Amino acid sequence: xxxxxxxxxxxxxxASRLSELQERHRSNHPGPGPRSSPWGEGRVAAVGPRxxxxxxxxxxxxxxxxxLREEGYEVVLAENGRAxxxxxxxxxxxxxxxxxxxxxxxxxxxxFRAVQKNDPALASIPVxxxxxxxxxxxxxxxxxxxxxxxxxxxxxLEVISRVLGDVERRKLLGRVxxxxxxxxxxxxxxxxxxxxxxxxxxxxxxxxxxxSELLRMLQRDGAGGGPAEAxxxxxxxxxxxxxxxxxxxGLDRIRDVVKDLQSLSRxxxxxxxxxxxxxxxxxxxxxxxxxxxxxxxxxxxYGAIPPITGNRSALGQVFLNLLLNAAQAxxxxxxxxxxxxxxxxxxxxxxxxxxxxxxxxxxxxxxxRIFDLxxxxxxxxxxxxxxLSVSQRxxxxxxxxxDVESAVxxxxxxxxSLPVRAVGPRPTPMTPELQPRTANxxxxxxxxxxxxxxxxxxxxxxxxxxxxxxxxxxxxARDAFARLALGERFDxxxxxxxxxxxxxxxxxxxxxxDWPDLVHRIVFMTGGAFTPESSELLETTTHRVLAKPFTPxxxxxxxxxxxxERGGPPPN
Length: 572
Prior knowledge:
Layout: H1 8-28, E1 35-37, E2 40-44, E3 50-54, H2 58-70, E4 74-78, H3 81-89, E5 97-101, H4 109-117, E6 127-131, H5 136-139, E7 145-148, H6 153-223, H7 232-263, E8 273-275, H8 277-287, H9 289-292, E9 297-302, E10 308-310, H10 312-329, E11 339-347, E12 350-357, H11 387-397, E13 401-407, E14 411-419, H12 439-443, E15 447-451, H13 455-465, E16 470-474, H14 477-485, E17 492-496, H15 504-514, E18 522-526, H16 532-540, E19 545-547, H17 552-566
Helix pairs in contact: 1-2, 3-4, 6-7, 6-13, 8-10, 10-11
């Protein structure tokens, strides 16, 4: 350490005094045994926050290090800036704070700070600069604090505490801001999901209805005799049918992305039920069979596990995401050489589901980030970075956790642990439990009232149901009220949840007052609940809820089930 004239004796006395204080602390407060410092000479005791002390004077370095250790800090020592940088870059644990002398041989404090600020891995470590230099250059050093030598231990300890406290407050503020951003993102996702699901509903139904009509035309053309396969008109119809089938695949992909986005918001209803985990896994396997069968041999290793209680649909989404990830981790066309194992176990109060693959594995630098929102290693267009983040959130909502182990070239194991809750009565599910169609219901033509502010949704519903039922459309709730006031009655009332002026809740409340005999005939339709009122209604209602987008077959089945349940014609 370079000294100015007249300062050498003073600094030596200070070092001697620091040594005396260190010995006094050590004799009065014996601490844990020391260990060697990875930065070089010196001793550290692993207790509190980690400090890196960079000081070229050995006596001062040892004395200050000793006092800091006695105050509960873990201390590592370096004799100059170069030694400090070498220690920081050799993979050793990162310090929480650097105490940096400015005037040192080999690499002084200014050079060290210049290199540190330009290294992304080191730039965020706070620095307290210490120097006997009274020049403007010394005081202008870019550091979190600057202390003049000679200094006393109380002053040093107070500044260390303040700087560490400021850093912790900034981290806390950053976490709060991040939480606020995610909350805003969740609200935005719910709102955007609702706006997308409305047009997606009528586009999906119209595509399905058009494809069904083309198929009937092709079948009629083929039944007329002759070489139907060579008819130019039939070939054109076949091509149109293929185009609609491709459009349906694209619509399904959009629906899945919207569903993942909406899962970021906790404002949606989360109805729970008790179910067998094995059954859910089998259903998920069936859904992913096309993705798995050409890539790996699937092995089921189910243990004896009790039923669990939770959101069955959401957990199914988790296992589907994990199975598809496992399929993508192994190369296509080599099924015999690869294995995907699904195993279940019951330990204590937990059910565990393990999905193991023999795929490429996850690199160590990627593994810590796999649950980060929007983080993906897939090419653009192949992944959104939502799947694992959403899955982790769903499992956490169930009081569980997801653990991942992976080795490059050997494969990955994903373990989902879920608590086993007491089996209670099964609540009314959010989606309809569709019952087999009875002969009476099949023969009876019903009257269906559709209340939806999107005219195209109403027209698509009418097209899907008109062969079986009489459908009446109302784009405003007050139009529906006017019909009911004139004495019209309906077997089923399909009502959109979120509408301008009068929404689904208000429709329900008006029916309960003026037409209570029709209250139980209402079915809510929703493209997503993003207001507190709509979320509360979905969470508490015992009525069926039809989530947009839905297929014509789902719509028809729900209407039949609703009519079966209510039975008989509507009251007059």
